[in-house]
Design goal:
The chain is α+β, with helices and mostly antiparallel strands and about 220 residues long. It is built from seven helices and nine strands; from the N terminus they run H-E-E-H-H-H-E-E-E-E-H-E-H-E-E-H. Bound molecules: coenzyme A (COA).
Length: about 220
Amino acid sequence: MARCASEREYPSEGLGWRPPDLSSIRLETDRLVIRSYELDDVDAVFRAISSCRGELLPWMVWVRTQHLEPASTAQYIAAQIMNTRRPETWDGIGLGVFLKETGEYIGGSGVHDVRRDTASCETGYWIHTAHTGRGYATEVCRRAIDWALCPQNRGGLGLRRVRIFCSSANPASIRVIEKLGIRKEVEMPGDYWVEGYGCTTRLGWGVLADEWNGRTVTG
Ligand SMILES: CC(C)(COP(=O)(O)OP(=O)(O)OC[C@H]1O[C@@H](n2cnc3c(N)ncnc32)[C@H](O)[C@@H]1OP(=O)(O)O)[C@@H](O)C(=O)NCCC(=O)NCCS
């Protein structure tokens, strides 16, 4: 979620967080592999997004203008790869979600809006419609938070805070966050435009490393 104008225009060094080596990210859960995209993923990612574009809309607005042809997916993946080569400006990454058993690509997650002053980030997720209702989004989100908040010397990003936002009109996504058991922090009426729903309430949750690490960090 956007910061106020003075934070954006006059960024402070603050905590001065710096990213670890990001050249290859591979996180595992019982059922899933969550990893950096590779150029070989273009076809699978394009096909998956194309085949559930209608369901991803209106929640993931980028599907309206991106991944409309394989070249756009290739451009997206190349940009993710190139970002990891620029640690001085790196502010987030999209990660692919794959079934461990079959290797099938089933969704996306990642960290976004990484802020170096507060050592914080946002996370998000989507799961292909053919695979929803099986707890995958919750599994992905829990692992993404683990990774974000885990210290760098144990394989994490070493951030100190994670934010998640969603619209009040998206009950499945709200439920995913509720299942994580993290703190609900903001409720902003009329702040989140969702096509077909209009101005909905922006809901926000957050968790600090000290709160999370005691529970689930896997390193
Ligand atoms: C939201 C989304 C990520 C959920 O993925 P998923 O893998 O099905 O999530 P999970 O199985 O981990 O959990 C979903 C929960 O929502 C519940 N749910 C699903 N539809 C619901 C609805 N219409 N109303 C209330 N709860 C609902 C499920 O029952 C489940 O809860 P439970 O385990 O207590 O039964 C997936 O539907 C999706 O990608 N949607 C489109 C993109 C999106 O909205 N992304 C999030 C943007 S903030």
